[in-house]
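[User] Could I get a sequence and structure tokens?

[Assistant]
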Amino acid sequence: MAIQHPSFGTLDPDRIIVFDTTLRDGEQSPGFSMNLEEKIRMAEALAELGVDVMEAGFPIASIGDFESVQAIAHRFAKDGPVVCGLARTAPGDIARAAEAIRPAARGRIHTFVSTSPLHMRVKLRMEPEKVLELVTASVTAARHATSDVEWSAEDGTRTEPDFLCRCVEAAIKAGATTINIPDTVGYAVPEDITRIFTMLRDRVPGADGVVFSAHNHNDLGLAVANTLAAIRAGVRQVECTINGIGERAGNASLEEIVMALRTRHDAIPVSNAVATPNILRTSRLLATITGFDVQPNKAIVGRNAFAHESGIHQDGMLKDSSTYEIMTPESVGWQKSSLVLGKHSGRAAFKDKLKALGYELGDNALNDAFKRFKDLADRKKVVYDEDVAALVDDEVVRANDRIRLTGLSVSTGMHTRPIASIALEVDGETKEGVAGGDGGVDATFAALRAAFPHEVNLKLYAVQSVTGGTDAQARVTVRLEENGKLVDGQGADTDTIVASARAYVHALNKLLVKRARTAPEGLSAPAA
């Protein structure tokens, strides 16, 4: 039976709605926060990827969150994905979400309340009947603001079955068009998910007229498996994030769900609107913005996902790639060749490579990127695709930074105290600092503090190689903490100390954004 939905019209029973929550649940991960410009860039990329619903934020959480949701709603005022704002049951939350999504061509309010015995007793300190009243009141209020309302049972997979049925029935009667049962703490196994959704669809009056949704966390590494089980049980909306980011161990990964459905269409014959060749590009953009690389062996988007080193595997690949690959690299945005560019390559070849990697740069940005490429090519024997992506990402994503690294000189060696001299451009003004330290990196960070005085704690310093070889670029991650706020910065360069300075400056810029944010006292964003 086809469902009539206010945002999608008549829904094909085999059509999966992809609900992306990278900008909301994903951003709640420590160190993953984004500023307004970064959120808009990410929202545009998600729209190009083809997500159906974009949960843009939690508008009541802060002025910055409200402004970002509203800005994204304005961006999709004529067309594009459904723009969704999260709200608790409080009337103020719902009104704030309604105001934020109002400019969008299609808007949704997503309201939730905890339903498990543990959450009701400890978190809400409410009796079940009171929670039922909140379900009805919050969904009713949301429906007065928009026709597209999603209701979630936080900690739904640990909720007593009879009470869960009563809550879902109340939400449907009040006007919810989507019912989400999240595995908020990643506790469920696929059999649990199948049982819960089958029960709800069989027992709850009106269940055949709404879209059921699955939102699974990855605490036991089962988020994607649980999501596929939900689809088999009749769920037609999946909630996920790029690279699987999110609270604690993260959410179900969009790229893994989509490619599982595409690759195993024989086992799960459903469709979705995601443009899979854009997957890698979107993954890399998120990694650059947040400062968190995906693990090398991450399915679909990890750098080893389509790499073959074993001689037996290589022999099979040369004869027929399907011997060891169940999907093509091109289908998710990878290129077959890595060894393309070198120091003799010209601007036209560089621009063509950027286009192949999914980058479109203006003339000034292209000139800056090409200069950095030529400098890199002079220092490296081979320039790989990953090298090009790293240097361009470093140039493009930092375009709006208030602090820029303009110069660095470090003197170090055995039996001598390292000294670093650094030059910064801060809001257009030149700042310089000189300092010593215990090693070149420590001296560099001390010089940064001298040029731009600040008090922070260095929580993490990590170095990895972008590619192989002694001339490989180093990618450095720096995590800073200020008054309980954590941010991560990244930098890449063939010189590890320069990469370290870039990463530290990137983190400082993110701290400046954090300082500008204000939030209601005691507000804690939900996990579901």
In short: The CA atoms of residues 32 and 290 lie 5 Å apart. The longest strand covers residues 403-411. The chain has a mean pLDDT of 89.
